[in-house]
């Protein structure tokens, strides 16, 4: 009980300092709990949607996916003949059965040709209005579509794009463009995560999406009373037979959809939890520093406790009890803040088009338990070392001035251990850069990153002396005696300076590493574009949609073009000369002009020869693995087509970035073995202008594709910028998540300075008494903070650039051969660190300036 009272008294005696540490715990716990609540809520939303939209049994074509996704190489959904519906209705236990048609390989535009597809990446679905949809959608205005001139739209999409009854829209599919006017608007009865849905009548949907009547993508079956879904599935399967059809119960359909969405959600969840872990790691330094300084300031008090009979264990428990209280308070607040963060993320996702209702907010019992456990355990573990140090304080310390006793032996051991870890990490990075295979090198890279990071943390106090002196010489000497005092203050306790700088080092090391990798990827791809791409324009969809024949025709009809190259991709089963059969191998078909549009390096033969009839190319690694040479024959069984025996006419280098690993044949060869209605659509289209007509052709191409807003026309400059923007957006997202760790590190600097000011109260009073002004005092504290921040920045940026350069060496094995250090970003981060130091010192410097001189001198 005495230990608890002592802990409570000490905790509230330093509540201001504890509050900063509690905020670090709060932020870390909030990020963990917010991530869990957000992803659980998304799972709940999708589960409700899938459960509500799945019929008792669904029949679809055999090559349809389990999730109902209808994307295919030829842009049309896989379909079944209308006779299937008749057979299903004859099955035992069937109450009702209805044939439907839908597709996600579509683009919908308004009268101004603006794309109505969601910006969140959710699908655009066009299908026939049916009874299954009527269960989950309520028509709020107008009526369901009747006839080819009518279409119904979901309310969320109508509200977002200001659509109303009578407005004209166009549905662009592989078949062509169908226009209709809005006859009705229907609202979801469950939460719509962001899909845009348009409904046609069944006959119109068949013609618009498939191009032929009397076909269905799905048959939705409802069970009669007393018939289970499993029994109904058996009955329907018995009637249809197993060949050619896929039969699923509502649970199987929902599970397949859940697994598909769950993969993406898990990536998001674990990525965010990883950044939360980084914040926890940074918070550990803050907590260790806080308790180390509090223990140092209470050395005399602890000595007196030991002198009157308190055991080491009791002193240790007293400090750990304070940590426990800190962890509980910070974690409880963090759980509440995490729920608020999850709601904020839901609102943010709503701005991007993904609607998540707070009615589905899901807080599992495990979420607060995980948050509390993490916060408390991390806090107590971080306080263990200071608590252990407190327990070692002898009763004789009561007779000395407050201050933690130095342990020279421990410092020497720490230095040796830090050097060994740093050396081992450096050797791991060297092995990674020298690796011949990316997989092997990535293991050494991971090991090198971990060991070098731990090594720098351990050796931080040793580095602090040298680095701070250099920074002091360069930056602080200009400030005269105040600058020299700031330098001495930063050097007074190297362990504290090292721990505070290490907290900032971790976040900035990751920023520097990712900046180097991102810049190197852009520079390498740009270099490859300049060396290999010989076309003027690239036409493609930014969301992965295939290019419809109508859009290709519009490109070919554009004036001012010298040539247009189509580029297709499909899968095939390869039987190689060594007798092995490789299922689902990718093969690329292009026009012969592609050999000019992409100057791919070959190690044998000429790429142009691969576009001759019944010919192909393979890449170097594939040829080595299967003993393939020029003239070798490969049996290629095309998906949805017949088998060809193609002669290898070229072997391309595997050390390329663009189309790495591609194996080429001509479109004419593919047409010979794949029926016209099964021929895949173009992935890309390349166009080259006639000499001197590049600008005019660029403008004409954009005009020609005005009716197809899903496609972008880019010249090489546009393409490079788009690549840079994509990587930049990803890096900005990662930087935003790393900002949490940097905020926690800033709190650590604030806390260190605040406690340092209290520790030096008498010293500050004496300096003020002999003439140091408030302004000079505040400047001294600000300069000390800046030096500590720049110390952490130097370590972090140096370490991160080393990691990034090593990672680039591994990427070079995949063709990304250019190393580029983003000096503007590195410089901006370094300068920004100085401002971080200034910001962190505001409150401690202000409080120091307000200190009463006489009271400060009288402090013991």
Automatic annotation (TrEMBL):
Gene Ontology molecular-function annotations: transmembrane transporter activity
Q: Where in the cell is it found?
A: Cell membrane
Q: Which residues form the ABC3 transporter permease C-terminal domain?
A: 275-395, 737-852
Q: Where is this region: Disordered?
A: 60-80
Q: What is its main location?
A: membrane
Cellular component per GO? plasma membrane
Q: Output the Pfam families linked to this UniProt entry.
A: FtsX, MacB_PCD
Which residues does the UniProt record annotate as the domain MacB-like periplasmic core?
Answer: 19-238, 500-697
Q: Does the keyword Membrane apply?
A: yes
Q: Kindly state which keywords UniProt assigns to this record, in alphabetical order.
A: Cell membrane, Membrane, Transmembrane, Transmembrane helix
- Its membrane topology: Multi-pass membrane protein
List membrane-spanning regions. 270-296, 319-343, 363-387, 408-431, 443-476, 497-518, 733-758, 783-805, 825-846
State the family it belongs to: Belongs to the ABC-4 integral membrane protein family.
Q: What is this protein called?
A: ABC transporter permease
- Recorded source organism is Streptomyces griseoruber
């Amino acid at each position: 009980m005495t230990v608890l009272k002592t802990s409570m008294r000490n905790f509230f005696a330093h509540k201001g300092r504890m509050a900063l540490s509690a905020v670090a715990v709060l932020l870390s716990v909030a990020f963990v709990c917010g991530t869990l609540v957000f992803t659980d809520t998304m799972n709940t939303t999708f589960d409700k949607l899938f459960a509500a939209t799945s019929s008792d049994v669904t029949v679809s074509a055999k090559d349809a996916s389990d999730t109902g996704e209808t994307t295919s190489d030829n842009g049309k959904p896989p379909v079944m003949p209308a006779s299937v519906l008749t057979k299903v209705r004859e099955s035992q236990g069937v109450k009702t059965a209805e044939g439907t048609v839908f597709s996600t390989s579509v683009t919908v535009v308004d009268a101004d040709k603006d794309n109505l597809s969601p910006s969140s990446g959710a699908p655009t679905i066009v299908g026939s209005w049916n009874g299954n949809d009527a269960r989950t959608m309520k028509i709020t205005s107008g009526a369901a579509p009747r006839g080819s001139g009518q279409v119904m739209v979901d309310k969320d999409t109508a509200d977002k794009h200001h659509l109303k009854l009578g407005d004209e829209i166009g549905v662009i599919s592989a078949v062509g463009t169908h226009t209709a006017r809005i006859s009705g608007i229907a609202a979801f009865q469950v939460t719509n995560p962001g899909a845009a849905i348009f409904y046609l009548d069944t006959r119109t949907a068949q013609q618009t999406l498939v191009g032929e009547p009397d076909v269905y993508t799905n048959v939705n079956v409802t069970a009669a009373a007393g018939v289970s879904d499993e029994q109904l599935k058996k009955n329907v399967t018995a009637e249809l037979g197993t060949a050619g059809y896929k039969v699923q119960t509502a649970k199987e359909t929902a599970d397949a959809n859940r697994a598909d969405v769950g993969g993406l959600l898990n990536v998001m969840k674990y990525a965010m939890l990883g950044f939360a872990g980084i914040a926890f790691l940074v918070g550990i330094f803050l907590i260790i520093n806080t308790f180390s300084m509090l223990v140092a300031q209470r050395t005399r008090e602890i000595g007196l406790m030991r002198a009157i009979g308190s055991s080491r264990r009791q002193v240790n428990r007293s400090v750990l009890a304070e940590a426990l209280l800190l962890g509980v308070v910070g974690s409880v607040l963090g759980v509440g803040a995490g729920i608020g963060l999850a709601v904020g993320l839901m609102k943010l996702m709503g701005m991007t088009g993904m609607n998540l209702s707070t009615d589905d907010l899901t807080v599992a019992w495990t979420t607060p338990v995980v948050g509390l456990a993490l916060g408390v355990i991390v806090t107590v573990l971080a306080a263990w070392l200071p608590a252990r140090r407190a327990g070692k304080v002898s009763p004789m310390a009561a007779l000395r001035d407050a201050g933690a006793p130095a342990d020279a032996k421990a410092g020497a051991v720490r230095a040796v251990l830090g050097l060994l870890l740093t050396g081992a990490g450096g050797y791991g990075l060297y092995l990674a850069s020298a690796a011949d295979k990316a997989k092997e090198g990535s293991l050494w890279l991971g090991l090198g990153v971990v060991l070098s990071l731990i090594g720098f943390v351990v050796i931080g106090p040793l580095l602090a002396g040298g680095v701070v002196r250099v920074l002091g010489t360069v930056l602080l000497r200009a400030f005269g005696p105040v600058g020299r005092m700031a330098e001495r203050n930063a050097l007074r306790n190297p362990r504290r300076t090292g721990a505070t700088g290490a907290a900032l080092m971790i976040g900035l090391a990751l920023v520097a590493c990712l900046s180097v990798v991102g810049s190197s990827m852009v520079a390498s791809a740009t270099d490859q574009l300049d060396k290999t791409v010989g076309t003027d324009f690239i036409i493609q969809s930014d969301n992965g949609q295939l290019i419809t024949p109508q859009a290709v025709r519009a490109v070919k009809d554009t004036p001012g073009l010298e040539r247009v190259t189509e580029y297709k991709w499909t899968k095939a089963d390869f039987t190689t000369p060594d007798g092995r059969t490789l299922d689902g191998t990718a093969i690329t078909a292009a026009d012969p002009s592609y050999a000019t549009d992409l100057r791919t390096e070959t190690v044998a033969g000429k790429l142009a020869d691969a576009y001759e009839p019944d010919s192909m190319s393979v890449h170097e690694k594939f040829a080595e693995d299967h003993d393939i040479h020029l003239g070798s024959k490969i049996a290629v069984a095309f998906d949805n087509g017949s088998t060809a025996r193609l002669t290898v006419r070229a072997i391309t280098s595997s050390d390329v970035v663009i189309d790495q690993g591609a194996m080429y044949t001509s479109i004419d060869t593919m047409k010979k073995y794949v029926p016209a209605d099964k021929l895949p659509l173009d992935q890309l289209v390349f166009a080259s202008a006639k000499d001197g007509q590049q600008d005019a052709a660029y403008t004409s191409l954009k005009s020609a594709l005005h009716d197809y807003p899903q496609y972008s026309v880019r010249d090489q400059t546009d393409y490079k910028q788009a690549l840079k923007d994509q990587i930049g957006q990803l890096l900005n997202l990662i930087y935003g998540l790393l900002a949490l760790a940097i905020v926690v590190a800033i709190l650590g600097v604030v806390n260190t300075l605040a406690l340092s000011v209290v520790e030096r109260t008498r010293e500050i009073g004496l300096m003020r008494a002999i003439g140091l002004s408030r302004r000079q005092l505040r400047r001294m504290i600000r300069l000390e903070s800046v030096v500590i921040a720049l110390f952490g920045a130097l370590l972090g940026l140096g370490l991160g650039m080393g990691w990034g350069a090593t990672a680039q060496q591994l990427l070079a094995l995949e063709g990304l051969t250019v190393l580029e250090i983003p000096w503007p970003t590195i410089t901006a981060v370094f300068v920004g660190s100085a401002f971080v130091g200034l910001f962190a010192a505001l409150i401690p410097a202000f409080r120091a300036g307000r200190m009463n001189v006489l009271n400060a001198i009288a402090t013991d």
